[in-house]
Write a structure and sequence with these properties.
This is SESD1 protein. By secondary structure, this protein is mainly α. It is built from 17 helices and six strands.
Length: 678
């Protein structure tokens, strides 16, 4: 890829320590010199013989061999000498002696001084240059190029032979079958793809030399004949297009003959054995099992038809493809075949579909009838069992289930009538597919069976409705009873939740008198809510007793709920009273403390009596002691307000205010102490 200062190509011959085969080297040079164009060869070559790893005799033989291999193209031979130089006299004498006979100049130079004769940007790194060169990459691309050239040339010959032979024998092939080999030795698509990839690589792969050198490529147009690739691709595309047309024409003629044969096979079977199978199937069955058996038999008939219908679909696609080709001479015959095939297949498919729909409608009718019969049996069984619910939820669930079953029966009977009428309509139309056979007797039996099933289901449904009305009245009364019991129990739960909330959340005593009064007012409203809940529960329990007497039954909750309600209310009352006492004590404490703390310190006469401070401390200590005392219930159990940390927080606010009062007291005493000393 490198060029000398005359734009001639640089040919590098690396020699190694191993024995160098001159024959192989000669063949390699012949091959490399065959690559450049004649125009490029005319500019001459500069040959670099890298003898740093070889003997002088080998280098001399290679230089002399260049005279025969590259006779007129070599303008300069640079022999790169090793560090341990050969005998100077010998080498100088030999080159000088052969100079006139060789016809080109030979110089002996060190690798680091090679740039005197060739620009560094045109030398590879081995010789101290900056030219980027990957020999394996070049070799791989070259192999691809040669493979493509060989395959494309061979493929062009084969395609031309096939295309020309097809043109000459086109008229004869219409009269007789000619066995020609339409398959080339290699795949044209693969060769074309390889060529396009190679061309793309040639056009896109570029390298820039160092120091702003001229752009060059290891597979430059001059080296790999880029126009040759483009020319081969154009020729391949042209021949391959002709080859595809030849194959298409031959394939179309072969398809036409096969289509004609297959069309007659399909028509003959559908009009013969296929039609005979349908003539023997007319019943609909009198149960699910009978309908399923007939349906299974019909599926077997359909399975046999499906194989022929698949052939029909394939043939129709093939005929459509040939019609799209637009050959006038085949259009009439193809359309006639297509019409004949479509008429027979559609007629047979319609008969199969009608029979399948009839059997499916019969199966659905029998399925609905069986489901409705089971629903009526379940509803009757439910009505025959006495009502013994466990609670209000279960009685409501039972009543809801009863209504749902009755509604389901109504829907089922309506669906049965719709299915039956649809089936009767199809049976009335069955005569149009009878192929001349009288099916009146079979149709009458089927009609009588369908009507009999619908009448029987109507009578059973009416009997169940009468029983449901009686059962519904009794269950509604029981629902009211259980509802009162559940609501009374719920009132107990609500009251318990209020008690729990009072103990766990009603803890704060307020930071001042105003806040404490607000808490006290909220607590009174809270107690009013609890009182309403208790009264509501008492009323419900009284209603429960009345309903039990009316239904002549014993209530589960009348003897249990009332004691629970009274017990929880008693606990709530005690807890509420304790809360009120604490809040009232806190109000008194805050009012007194705030009054003392807000007095003006310049008026000591207002605090002559220290009893006020003592009273405040006594109230505060009393309040702190009350915070540590639990609420004791009649059954002996105890409950504290909130958690220990909550109580500690409430007590801390009291202690802080007591400290402020104590500090105020000390400040007032201070003048009394200091005055005598002064």
């Amino acid at each position: 890829g490198g060029k000398d200062r005359r734009s001639g190509l640089i040919l590098t011959i690396p020699l190694c320590l191993e024995q160098t085969s001159m024959d192989e080297l000669s063949v390699t040079l012949d091959y490399l010199l065959s690559i450049p164009s004649e125009k490029c060869k005319a500019r001459g070559f500069t040959v670099i013989v890298d003898g740093r790893k070889s003997q002088w005799n080998v280098v001399k033989t290679v230089v002399l061999m260049l005279q025969n291999v590259v006779p007129a193209e070599v303008s300069l031979v640079c022999v790169v000498k090793p560090d341990e130089f050969w005998d100077k006299k010998v080498t100088h004498f030999c080159f000088w002696k052969e100079k006139d006979r060789l016809g080109f100049e030979v110089i002996l130079v060190s690798a680091n001084k090679l740039t005197r004769y060739i620009e560094p940007c045109q030398l590879t790194e081995d010789f101290g240059g900056t030219l980027t060169y990957d020999h394996m990459d070049w070799l791989n691309k070259r192999l691809v190029f040669e493979k493509f050239t060989k395959e494309s040339t061979s493929l062009l010959d084969e395609l031309a032979l096939i295309n020309n032979g097809s043109d000459k024998g086109n008229q004869q092939e219409k009269e007789r079958s000619i066995d020609l080999n339409f398959l080339p030795s290699v795949d044209p698509e693969t060769v074309l793809q390889t060529g396009h990839e190679l061309l793309s690589e040639l056009q896109q792969r570029r390298f820039n030399g160092s120091d702003g050198g001229v752009s060059w490529s290891p597979m430059d147009d001059e080296l790999l004949a880029q126009p040759q690739v483009m020319k081969l691709l154009d020729s391949l595309r042209e021949q391959y297009t002709r080859y595809q047309e030849v194959c298409r024409q031959r394939s179309k003629r072969t398809q036409l003959e096969e289509i004609q044969q297959k069309v007659m096979q399909v028509v003959n079977w559908l009009e013969g054995p296929g039609s005979e199978q349908l003539r023997t199937q007319w019943g609909i069955g009198d149960s699910i099992r009978a309908s399923q058996a007939l349906q299974q038999k019909h599926e077997e008939i359909e399975s046999q038809h499906s194989e022929w219908f698949a052939v029909y679909v394939e043939l129709n696609q093939q005929i459509a493809a040939l019609l799209n080709a637009g050959d006038e001479e085949d259009l009439v015959e193809l359309k006639a075949l297509q019409q004949q095939l479509s008429d027979v297949c559609y007629r047979q498919a319609s008969q199969l579909e009608f029979r399948q729909n009839l059997l499916q409608a019969a199966l659905e009718f029998h399925s609905v009838a069986q489901d409705l019969s089971q629903q009526l049996d379940g509803l009757l069984g439910m009505l025959c069992v006495d009502v013994a619910p466990a609670d209000g939820a279960s009685i409501q669930q039972t009543l809801k289930l009863l209504e749902e079953k009755l509604k389901s029966v109504d829907l089922g009977l309506q669906g049965l009538r719709e299915k039956g009428q649809s089936l009767l309509d199809q049976i009335s139309n069955q005569a149009s597919w009878a192929y001349g056979k009288d099916v009146t007797i079979e149709n009458k039996e089927n009609v009588d069976h369908i009507q009999g099933v619908m009448e029987d289901m109507q009578l059973r449904k009416q009997r169940c409705e009468d029983m449901v009305d009686v059962r519904r009245l009794k269950m509604l009364q029981m629902v009211q009873l259980f509802k009162c019991e559940e609501d009374a129990a719920q009132a107990v739960e609500w009251l318990s939740e209020l008690l729990d909330a009072l103990l766990k959340t009603h803890i704060r005593l307020g930071d001042d008198a105003q806040e404490t009064k607000v808490l006290l007012e909220k607590h009174r409203k809270f107690v009013d809510v609890a009182q309403s809940t208790y009264d509501y529960g008492r009323q419900l329990l009284q209603a429960t007793v009345v309903l039990c007497q009316s239904l002549r039954c014993t209530s589960r909750s009348s003897g249990d709920t009332l004691p629970r309600l009274n017990r929880v209310w008693k606990q709530f009352t005690l807890t509420s009273e304790e809360r009120v006492q604490r809040l009232e004590t806190a109000v008194a404490f805050h009012l007194s403390a705030e009054k003392i703390l807000q007095e003006c310190p310049e008026q000591p006469e207002a605090f002559n009596e220290m009893e006020q401070f003592d009273e405040i401390e006594a109230v505060g200590k009393s309040l702190l002691d009350r915070l540590t005392v639990p609420v004791v219930y009649p059954d002996g159990s105890e409950q504290y307000f909130g958690s220990p940390s909550d109580m500690a927080s409430a007590a801390e606010h009291i202690r802080e205010k007591m400290k402020l009062v104590s500090l105020k007291k000390q400040q007032l005493r201070q003048p009394e102490v200091t005055t005598p000393e002064s």
